[in-house]
């Protein structure tokens, strides 16, 4: 009996110590965890119960004269005849920064090569790069000062060679991404309104152009309208932490949830949606500097909802495998590997080895092992393995 009491007390002591340890960990982690959980609960409640997105539209609607300040910038580099006289399937804007010339050259040599697209795929796709003005000379890097050539001069020279830079005179920065988005829709409206589709993408994205062209040709042949496709974020709350890159103060956006939107890494809209988004930008306050969220606000104002495509990635990079390449649309986070990926993804062996019943079953097994993992997120979801 005495031994049993000692054993019980020892067990109680272990339980007490364990409880104290768990409570200590919870107390340390509770504040960020609590903030994240509460913000998402509020967001989903607002989205599904209150459904107050009409109030968002009203609160952000401003007079046209005031809205013009977000688009009334001069073009430093422009190509107004880029689309003239051509049946353009896709106008593809790549968001880039002035210093990222190597990324632009990589895109021009791989998936964004217009000559390859015209010759191999038989369609016209116009690829242009959207950028703002570089910082003033006092911010120039030391190597630029030694060369005696400023950033804008280098851009002018680059554009003289390639003829694909679209630049306005707002400062190119993270907080001006919404201005860059507005520029794209305004440029299409005035320069390339007959293009069937508009795509906006980051300059570290990989686009499987043969797959995308085939998909868009099918969509176009069916006369689909209200088309907006990409990686969809639903019920996302504003980030109120000042330590975050995506911090949005209450004064800028007072609501508990964003309208649904697609990840800014890459998405596609049809011509009719692009024109209505342009119209929306003429009356909405664009001071919110998260461009993909602002796109969601504009789309909500015109009554268009995004559609999920499992092979459009979010911020993640897709696995390297031919079974992935067979259906890939976009993958994010590619810079140094873009040449190798382009060669591998467009190899004729991909279609040969993934076709037929045996190839499809093999690829399903491979994709399950690659995509259906609890720690694998922000690129293709597990359900993509079964499509």
TrEMBL record:
Q: Which Gene3D superfamilies match?
A: 3.90.550.50
Main EC class the enzyme belongs to:
transferase
As for membrane topology, the entry says:
Single-pass type II membrane protein
Subcellular location, in the record's words?
Answer: Golgi apparatus membrane
> Could you tell me the Gene Ontology terms of the biological process aspect for this record?
protein O-linked glycosylation; sphingolipid biosynthetic process
| GO molecular function per UniProt | lactosylceramide 1,3-N-acetyl-beta-D-glucosaminyltransferase activity
What's the protein called, per UniProt?
Hexosyltransferase
Name the source organism: Xyrichtys novacula (Pearly razorfish)
State the taxonomy lineage. Eukaryota, Metazoa, Chordata, Craniata, Vertebrata
């Amino acid at each position: 009996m005495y031994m049993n009491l000692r054993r019980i007390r020892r067990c109680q002591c272990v339980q007490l110590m364990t409880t104290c340890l768990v409570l200590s960990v919870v107390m340390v982690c509770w504040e960020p965890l609590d903030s994240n959980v509460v913000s998402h609960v509020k967001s989903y409640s607002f989205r599904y119960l209150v459904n107050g997105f009409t109030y968002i539209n009203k609160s952000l609607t401003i007079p046209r004269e005031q809205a013009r300040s977000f688009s009334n910038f001069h073009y430093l580099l422009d190509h107004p005849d880029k689309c003239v006289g051509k049946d353009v399937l896709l106008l593809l804007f790549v968001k880039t920064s002035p210093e990222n010339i190597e990324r632009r050259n990589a895109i021009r040599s791989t998936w964004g090569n217009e000559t390859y697209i015209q010759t191999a795929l038989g369609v016209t796709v116009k690829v242009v790069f959207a950028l703002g003005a570089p910082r003033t000379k006092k911010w120039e890097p030391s190597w630029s000062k030694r060369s005696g050539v400023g950033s804008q001069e280098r851009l002018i020279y680059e554009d003289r060679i390639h003829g694909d830079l679209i630049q306005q005179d707002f400062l190119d920065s993270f907080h001006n991404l919404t201005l860059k988005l507005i520029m794209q829709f305004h440029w299409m409206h005035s320069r390339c309104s007959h293009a069937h589709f508009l795509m906006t993408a980051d300059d570290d994205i990989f686009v499987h152009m043969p797959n995308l062209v085939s998909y868009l040709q099918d969509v176009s042949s069916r006369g689909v309208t209200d088309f907006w496709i990409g990686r969809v974020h639903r019920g996302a709350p504003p980030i109120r932490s000042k330590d975050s890159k995506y911090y949005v103060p209450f004064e800028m956006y007072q609501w508990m949830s964003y309208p649904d939107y697609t990840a800014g890494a890459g998405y596609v809209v049809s011509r009719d949606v692009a024109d209505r988004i342009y119209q929306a930008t003429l009356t909405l306050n664009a001071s919110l500097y998260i461009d993909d969220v602002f796109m969601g606000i504009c789309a909500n104002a015109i009554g268009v909802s995004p559609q999920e495509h499992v092979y459009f990635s979010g911020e993640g990079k897709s696995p390297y495998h031919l079974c992935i390449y067979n259906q890939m649309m976009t993958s994010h986070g590619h810079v140094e590997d873009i040449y190798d990926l382009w060669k591998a993804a467009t190899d004729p062996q991909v279609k040969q080895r993934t076709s037929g019943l045996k190839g499809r079953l093999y690829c399903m097994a491979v994709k399950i092992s690659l995509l259906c993992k609890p720690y694998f997120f922000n690129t293709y979801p597990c359900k993509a393995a079964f499509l």
